Amino acid sequence: MAKLTTQTAQALTTVEALLPGAVRVVRDTVSIAGKVSSELMEENQTAAHALAWLATCVQSLRQMQGWATRLENDGRFGETEQLILQIAFGEYLSQIPSGIPDSQGEIIRLQDLGLDATMLATALKAIPRRPRGRHPEQGAVHQGGGEASPRSGMPRTSPHQLQRKPQQLARTRARRPQQQAS
After folding, report:
1. Given pLDDT bands bounded at 50, 70 and 90, which one contains residue 122?
2. What percent helix, strand, coil does the chain show, rounded to 5?
């Protein structure tokens, strides 16, 4: 299996390829003679929001990829960091073709961008999908090698820990090494 950052880079390239076409379609939809029309923008607000959310997802994945690459180059890309990368990519790669949450009650779909059927079919086919069943050779980006969810490997924070003030957490963490030494 290819290393995780190679897989995420390939997935990112696929998702990035969607953006220029989406920008072109929405720009043409909300413009008259090359200028954005407030009236057309209002009429096509869903397409504008869909583009904004798609661009936000792509930028988030770019930043995650850059972060992971820097850590990997520094030899600090450990298990927790790999799980974080898998969770982020898995979530966005699932949302982009299926529906990006715009609010608690609204989902933005690629078809809301106004992409023609060919562009939409190409985009949906190209985005890596979460594998079905148990295929360890597929989908490390989505499910940590196709087995358990990457979330299961993340450390848990108890509600009690979240209620503590930052100073209390710092004192607790500062005491731990002393307690372990005795």
Report:
1. confident
2. 70, 5, 25
